């Protein structure tokens, strides 16, 4: 049997073949294909069960790590909650261990209710809503059969999804473009709904049925419409994901597209109709009657059979499958010929450029020349897409979560979302660094890829280690001296955790074999073979000796409430901080750290409860640093080590608590800056922070200000604890509070007045202002204010005169 070129990972399952709206631009009911008339209204349970079985066997055969299933229609909510439940449970139960299910439903929103939302929350079903903009734009096409508006019902549905208990279900909005609608009004109406993502869709058209054009509307009206939206989106700081815009940015620098309508990536999508037949992409219904037909069904054919269908294969052939005109086009790698259905012409089939060819070229060139694709940001590796899905970094945070972070805080859920985005970035950077090595799919990388399919939890446990991507960051920065050994060590640690008997060769230098997240084994230099066993591991050294235990395990401290922190004093890449790291802690030093961390954690819970929850959710590692000069506390957060802070153990637990909170602020903000541009990266001016004598780039001022939100609150709560009390400790707390609230407030205003913040950055600064302003109103003794002023004057004397 011929091996299929690309496995199928995305499945559109038609739950109901009718709709409660009569949208006049619908490709199912209003275009060339009329097959819906002869199909059952509702999909049968037997068909659902067999479809789940087919997807499960396909996932096993091709070792898929994830599949996406979209419950669709018609209008899928017409199928009713019981059938939707049975569908969700069948698909989830059919997948093998290690294969994740991304389950979604696409609805017009009219029937969405609180009961449906509760069901989807239980079943983990993400919800996408069709909405074309404000009421005037939406009512141009999306109406009931009697002409009534559907807009109020759709807004009610979006409102439900924006409620805190259901917000995590909100997948985004789908907006079909009509060039008669005002793009500014459409964008503003959608943005006000705070969607995590918006897909702007070109209306389906072919060379036989060309898209609408307006008199005097220019040669590329759809590009002009989208470029207007793009300018607004950039000016607002990209407040939500837009796959079309992001795909253009990505494909221009050689990365994959996020949508089938752009780029050269092979399609991996199939459709299951209510009668159990398999079809190609729904968009083909706009070409001619029967265009999506495959002649296959879920009972007689496997998904491998379907993947071999000529129509499916045609959408997987990349550049070779495009017309001669497309292959010669300078923007073909971004455009990809456009959506396959939009190429159709009766006499030449699909061997044509898109009917939107001129619009696509204008759009791509317009985005490329807009300045929106920032060179520094876009040189960073993009998120690795899950199989069959958009990148994990897209819409990683809900707007409310970003606002929460802007105020300095971060709940467990919000910090966990940051962690997921950082894991995706780590995966992308590792892949980019390995690709640049020219080694291909071999050795450690091949094993890591295999384990990612069969034992993903083991891989995730290793890749969430804070220093896992330090190797990739150094390689991508041009430091080839770091070698490929650290990647082999990651694969070896994953193999040990998986315990399947996998083996990988790891270079040994300096007499130690390091297994990230586990510890290290003393073995002679050379190449050691690490084998992960169900009951442990085996290391076969270059001299023939065999070791089965760790000589120096990674040590962890268990804190109150079950939180565990690793004391990382082994990893060779822990030197990512700006200060020298400590060597292996002695038993006495370990005991000192253990006691200090336990006391500091209790203090954080008491003095900084709004910060403690996020620290617990995101801080996994403390790396001991060497002590600094006498009287100086030393601490650090490394941008490429999410989840870790470096600290030289201070003299007191309260100071350790403050340093933990301060540095984790840097960790959080670094993760936010990996997701969003809060400031103009082209701004090369230097700015004075109130607490430093030397000017710094804007990002340095932003980082310092954000960290000092926690410092201000720390001293504010300490001051409140000393209310009415005298003594040196109380006086010091009040003076520190007076100083840091003033410094932090001044820094927020300096950021806001810089003129270099993006729209999202301005919103972020406003959140910081909201956090610090209440502390400014707390009354303090005159002595505390005088002490703060004295400290300020001393600092100012060290500073050169500002221009």
Commentary on this structure:
The structure is a single chain. With 803 residues, the chain is an alpha/beta fold. A hairpin with a 4-residue loop joins strand 7 (269-272) and strand 8. The chain is globular. It has 27 helices and 23 strands. It has a nine-stranded mixed beta sheet. It has three domains: 10-373, TIM Barrel (Alpha-Beta Barrel), CATH 3.20.20.70; 439-551, no CATH class; 677-803, no CATH class. It is 42% helix and 13% strand. Helix 1 packs parallel to helix 2 and helix 16 (412-437) crosses helix 19.
Task: Give a concise summary.
The chain has 803 residues and is an alpha/beta fold. Helix content is 42%, strand content 13%.
